[in-house]
Amino acid sequence: MEIRPADPSELPPVMNVLDGASLAVDADTVRERSRADAVWIAVADDRCLGACVLDGQEIDAIAVRRRRRGQGIGTRLVEHAAAATAGDLRAEFHRRVRPFYGSLKFTIEPTDEPDRFRGRYE
Predict the structure, then answer these.
(1) Cβ contact 10:48 at 8 Å
(2) pTM of full prediction above 0.70
(3) What is the DSSP letter of 98?
(4) Per-domain residue ranges of the chain
(5) pLDDT at position 88, please?
(6) What span, in angstroms and rounded, lies between the C-alpha atoms of 49 and 2?
(7) Fewer C-beta within 10 Å: the chain N or C terminus?
(8) Which helix (H) or strand (E) holds 39?
(9) Which of 84, 80, 88 is CA-nearest to residue 106?
(10) CA distances from 52 to 46, 69, 110, 111 (A)
(11) Is 108 in a helix, a strand, or coil?
């Protein structure tokens, strides 16, 4: 498996992964960020297995194909995103994915919104 920046031409498979995780991410935004090397994808056998969309130093969206979850793909995407942001990586997320971020060296704090948390990669 290879982790690399997405090319704008790869928007359909990237959106397929993000949509499959029910993430509300605008396709035009993903296209623009891919032009700025702010979209990382996990690829194996020419198939997009996961995607991580950055907004500056923050993870805007991260998803892995349902059948490939639990195989370390999300972890590798976060590690590459952290390297791309010189280790100053942040995320805001729902409580149901808190275990994922907690397992990845994120310091986690609650936000003012119910069921929402902020994390900073350590």
Answers:
(1) yes
(2) yes
(3) H
(4) 2-86
(5) 87
(6) 10
(7) C
(8) strand 39-44
(9) 88
(10) 17, 14, 22, 22
(11) strand
Beta bridge partners of 116: 94
Q: Where are the alpha helices (DSSP H) in the chain?
A: 11-20, 27-35, 73-84, 98-102
Answer yes or no: CATH 3.40.630.10 is held by domain 2-86: no
65/1 Cα distance (integer angstroms): 14
> CA nearest 103: which of 84, 83, 85, 79?
79
Q: Is the dihedral of CA 8, 12, 13, 18 positive or negative?
A: positive
Helix (H, G, I), strand (E, B) or coil at 113: coil
Helix (H, G, I), strand (E, B) or coil at 40: strand
Contact 114, 95 (CB under 8 A): no
